[in-house]
Amino acid sequence: MTAFNTALSEQNRVFEQRVTELEDDLAAARTSLRRMIRSENRSS
Fold first, then answer.
1. Which residues of 16-41 are buried (b: 16+ CB within 10 A; e: fewer)?
2. Model-level pTM greater than 0.85?
3. Which regions form coiled coils (predicted)?
4. Distance separating alpha carbons of residues 31 and 38, to the nearest angstrom
5. What is the tens place of the pLDDT at every residue in 20-32?
6. Of residues 44, 26, 19, 21, the one with CA closest to residue 34
């Protein structure tokens, strides 16, 4: 049971790290989109 729990804990750590990476990517994409919208609004 201990090996199983260890494996699950490691898998959970990997998933949490990936979620953090994806959240960072999403935040960057939102920022970029806001800049594009502002730029388009200024040129209109």
1. eeeeeeeeeeeeeeeeeeeeeeeeee
2. no
3. 5-32
4. 11
5. 999 999 999 999 9
6. 26
